[in-house]
Write a structure and sequence with these properties.
Distance between the termini: 47 Å
Helix content: 25-40%
Number of domains: 2
Strand content: 15-25%
CATH class of the largest domain: Alpha Beta
Oligomer: single chain
CATH architecture of the largest domain: Alpha-Beta Barrel
Shape: elongated
Length: about 400
Amino acid sequence: MAASSVIPSTQTISRRTWAEVSVSRLRHNLRTVQDFVGPQATVCAVVKADAYGHGAQGCARALELEGAAWFGVTSTHEGMLLREAGIKGRILVMAGFFRGEEEYLVQNNLTPTIWDRNHIQLLEDAAERLTKDKVNIHLKVDTGMTRLGANLSDLPALADALRQARRLRVEGFYSHLASAEVLDAPSVEQQIARFGQASATMVEHGLTPQFLHIANSAALATRPKTWMNFVRPGLALYGYHLPFVSAVTGAPDTSHELPVLPVLTWKTRVIAVRDVPAHTAVGYGGAYVTPAPARIAVLPVGYADGLNRQLSSRGRVIVRGDYAAIIGNIAMDLTTIDVSGIAGVEVGDEVVILGTQGHRTITPWEHARHASTVAYEILCAISKRVPRKFVD
């Protein structure tokens, strides 16, 4: 009798490339932020964009266990994913909503951001259909970012409409800073002043929101007057800072950095090793040619995993505690590195793409410099086919 074939579970198959997310570091970072702003400010943990590439559901669970009561997401869909993961805390949907999503917001106790009259009517109608007495909303005002938010000139009429809404409660009032990492940027002070004026307009029209907020990670670290009673850290929770600089001199300033710890380590393993002679073309287009005899390792990771192609023949990884240069063009699934100067490299060796191994470290900012972008994009670009493993 022929043996029946058994297809193994994907859980039993070795990961070719994966990202480890440190739960202890994530919880440490939340405590660090909360201790820094003190008990007078509620921390809204921003987990939008899949927690900046770290895995929103797992991160939110860990943060909720550490005491996070609020979470910030971009969309109704992101909010629903947190609810499906069992998150009980408040969820602020920061980028508005489309017609047809209002009932999902109301049913699942998601807190929508609004900025125009259409939002008011949609939510009022949904609350009435679902017999919901009060729906908490946060009103956003544009103080100079020129993206989302009510215009300052429209605020009086909008405030009057909200005061007359029977089923809506203006729980929060907020804005967003465009250049908080620039320590002496005049535009930031202008935005803060406009927000103060807008808050006064709200009070004049009979609205006194419980929460006022304008501080992101950079403002939280550099401008205590922006804390008010609600802050929205994102990048800081995952262990990074924007580079703080002076608008006048352009000089970097590290004195405002919080003692947060990087949460994510991106890893892969060597899948092949080969020795090649001098003048050997490597990879697509022969973009790299070995100047001397070389020992080359192949990694099962590429741009489909989120490894930016701009790191081709520019970036580096860490293997056996030392740096190894990326050589040739990064392909969809494979990347080649030069391990000529590193003794003993063999198939199966663990390789760090982002993070620390021994005394060596590679940060998202290093990748960002090569790719002419920002660390946010590097982290968010790590693709869904790279499993996130929550450790410790």
